[in-house]
Amino acid sequence: MDPIIDVRDLKKYFPEVKAVDGISFAIEPGICFGLLGPNGAGKTTAIEVIEGILEPTAGEIYYKGEPRGRSFKNEVGIQFQNTELPQYLTVKETLLTFRDLYDRRSDLGYLIETCRLEEILKRDNRKISGGQKQRLLLAMALANDPELIFLDEPTTGLDPQARRHLWDIVRNIKSLNKTIVLTTHYMEEAEILCDRIGIIDHGKIIVMGTPAGLLREYAGGSTITLRTEIDDAMLQSIPCRWFRKHGHIEIQTDSSGECIRRLVELGVDLSTMNVRHQNIEDLFLKLTGHELRA
């Protein structure tokens, strides 16, 4: 199947930083592709160049097999990381206004039902919650019935319930054979929503693949968490990777039994120990040496 979007050796340099430093990827239609990385990794800059908001320093972007043309912005949907809603308009008036900007328009009832806006249609934009605002912004991104939708960190700042609410909506949109490009620094979000992910750090994509496939290849072991005092010399005698994080120690190992045996030999207090399978966040830490949310 031909990709809906094909990015080749994309670069975006600023005087002080190489924000995007030669990334390449292709996205098949109907999937959710995630760019995963910490703040400052280059996710938003890369997406803004692909969307046509920023000019690339170098590289090529193809849409449906052709160089991205003038019609691209009219055919895609974009939910920006930060958007100010028009004041003094209601939610319904805002939706109608944005629909009228396009020749091709989604059905108003579809937008309201899909993004679960029924209860706030008559409410002023200034009087809606953060989660309600994000659902409205998502409806605005769908106003032109796009095949390709960009979501730039859509759940940042939301409480866990509002975040899961938005995840359900995104999964419903994807079920309609829409293609979604998502940036996030939430590992759980990437694992739940994305069919494929690219992990980006310092403007470069480090690895790419399915979440499950990347975990099998790079992070098939366990992570041991300890909330106890252990000096660095003792930790260095354990043949495992370890990190100090927020008042606790994380040890990454392919053999949890052997690691625990060594900790017992060293006399480490294991009363606070927790052992779990590694996840995308552990994978990022293993590949980069720093945290996903750094």
What's the topology here?
Layout lengths: L4 E10 L2 E11 L4 E5 L6 H9 L6 E6 L2 E2 L4 H4 E4 L11 H9 L8 H7 L15 H12 L6 E5 L7 H15 L4 E6 L2 H7 L2 E6 L2 E6 L1 H8 L3 E5 L5 H5 L4 E5 L2 E6 L2 H10 L8 E4 L2 H9 L6
Parallel strand pairs: 3-8, 3-9, 6-7, 7-8
Antiparallel strand pairs: 1-2, 1-4, 4-5, 9-10, 11-13, 11-14, 12-13
Helix pairs in contact: 5-6, 8-11
Keywords:
32% helix; alpha/beta; six-stranded mixed β-sheet; Rossmann fold; 2 domains; four-stranded antiparallel β-sheet; 11 helices; single chain; 294 residues; 14 strands
Output the strand order for the largest sheet: 6-7-8-3-9-10
Q: What is the name of the CATH class of the largest domain?
A: Alpha Beta
Largest sheet: 6 strands, mixed
Q: How many domain units?
A: 2
Series of secondary-structure elements, N-terminal to C-terminal: EEEHEEHEHHHEHEHEEHEHEEHEH
Q: What's the total number of strands?
A: 14
Shape: globular
Tell me roughly what share of residues is in helical segments.
Answer: 25-40%
Q: In terms of structural class, how would the helical and strand content be classed?
A: alpha/beta
- Name the CATH homologous superfamily of the largest domain: P-loop containing nucleotide triphosphate hydrolases
Strand content: 25-35%
User: C-alpha Rg, in Å?
Assistant: 22 Å
- Corresponding CATH architecture of the largest domain: 3-Layer(aba) Sandwich
Low-confidence stretches: none
Query: How many helices does DSSP assign?
Result: 11
Oligomer: single chain
CATH topology of the largest domain: Rossmann fold
